[in-house]
Amino acid sequence: MTAVALPPTIPHLAAETAARFGARPALIENGETWSFAELWRRARQAASAFLAYGIEPGDRIAIWAPNRAEWIVATIGAQAAGAAIVPLNTRLKGREAGDILRRTNARMLFTVGDFLGTDYPALLRDEALPTLERTLLFDSDWNAFLAEGAGADDRRVDDALAALGPDALSDIMFTSGTTGAPKGVLTTHGRIIPMFEAWGDAVGLREGDVYLIVNPFFHSFGFKAGWVAALIKGATIVPMATFDVAKAITHIERDRVSFLPGPPTIFQSLLAEPRFDSSALRCAVTGAATVPPILIERMRDELGFRAVVTAYGMTECSAITSCRQGDPVELVASSCGKALPGLEVKCADDAGHEVPRGQEGEVLVRGYGVMLGYLDDPAATAEAIDADGWLHTGDVGVMDAAGYLRITDRKKDMYISGGFNCYPAEIEKLLSAHPAIAAVAVIGVPDERMGEIGHAFVVLRSDAPRVGEAALIGWSRENMANYKAPRRVTLLDALPLNASGKVVKPELRAMAERQG
């Protein structure tokens, strides 16, 4: 049987799903349902507006907003005009967002006026953004922006699509770095479509599924493994701006949700609620933290999931491994699955040589899903991707005889809080801006609800007014994304240092363990 050719880009994918699925439901939001044809009609309208404004191939369009239908339409429309999307984490503060907007030379920013008490445009008032020409609010400016393309020659969109190919840049997604500076990950369209075709097959996403997307669109799991994968498979998208257990249950019951990925914490929240109609739930995908066997069993027995699988990926290669439908509970709980078809995964020693199965080594991946590189950072790109094309993930794992991977440690100094990667070097750099801090070191410590949280060990300046732990935590929440902000602070007279002057973090971990 001849394989069906995949669409070359995300806009072509949206056009093809409109042709294939037509009037079938593509998206449900606020009681309104859009068909696949309607979604593509709106995306073309957005593309026409971007072209009318003068957006050209190579431009960057930033989106700083929670999950919503316009996020999808703006992305497809901007990409159809040849632009790359720059998704911004809604938890970022103004300084962090401004840095990304400057480094990407974003021409336009789409955002919201208020979300969870945050006025996003206000956060940028003190930021110098020389290339940013327009900031538009989805709630008040979106329809007027679309109207700018009304009456334009529709052939301009067709011409732009004809010029768009798989090697065009899809997005620049920022990931924190061990050096303290976030890195922009460059990903082309041709890397995304085959990756999430394979991912959807592996985890069991299928045509007709109703996909509740609780993972944020600014994250690969909500964007690419989220609504892009749904378009590839012909599933209905149900976006959630932020996870709320009562609203999630309403969607599950009313919209007949069948496919629900997310971190273990959301399933624990659902299990803590009184029984509800979960009869439509079919498949769950989880990861980003340890998944106990008892949780998987309860998800199957009490929530009715017929399949629970784990998966593993990173911004630099959004999908690497996944379990398969029918894998036993013990395997799902103890591993993150096998390599997706067409990807090579191995555990290697420091020289890059594969270690024997059953032995620990750094996880390396090679294949179509690996990023193009880091934005304006050839040195970091060369460090991450070796001469043979292997991406060095910085994670340490063990692969069994059947090819199932288990992550055992992190080579990089990183912890995961609530599903978000947190790099101590970046957090330490942000904390160092506090006028009373002379030295600081951050580690991740276990937390029952979040998986891990940040614990900062701080040495105060002798010439500064004394501040307490609570004040430092409060300052952190005001000056960095809340998932980065340490939840615990310990004041020390001095940090433990080795002979070369580096912080001895095992001593800090032992100290944190004694504190409980």
What does this structure look like?
The chain is α/β, with parallel strands linked by helices and 516 residues long. Among the domains are: 179 residues, 3-Layer(aba) Sandwich (Rossmann fold); 101 residues, ANL, C-terminal domain (GMP Synthetase, Chain A, domain 3), CATH 3.30.300.30. It contains 17 helices and 25 strands. Strands 11-12-13-14-15 form a five-stranded mixed beta sheet. Strand 12, helix 12 and strand 13 form a beta-alpha-beta unit.
Topology, element by element:
Elements: H1 10-21, E1 25-29, E2 32-35, H2 36-53, E3 60-64, H3 69-80, E4 84-87, H4 94-104, E5 108-111, H5 120-123, E6 134-137, H6 138-147, H7 155-163, E7 169-175, E8 183-188, H8 189-203, E9 210-213, H9 220-233, E10 236-239, H10 245-254, E11 259-261, H11 264-271, E12 283-286, H12 293-301, E13 307-314, E14 317-322, H13 329-334, E15 338-339, E16 344-348, E17 360-366, E18 373-374, H14 378-384, E19 391-399, E20 405-410, E21 415-417, E22 420-422, H15 424-431, E23 437-447, E24 451-460, H16 469-479, E25 488-491, H17 505-515
Parallel strand pairs: 3-4, 3-5, 5-6, 9-10, 11-12, 12-13, 24-25
Antiparallel strand pairs: 1-2, 7-8, 8-18, 13-14, 14-15, 16-17, 17-19, 19-20, 21-22, 23-24
Helix pairs in contact: 1-2, 1-3, 2-3, 8-9
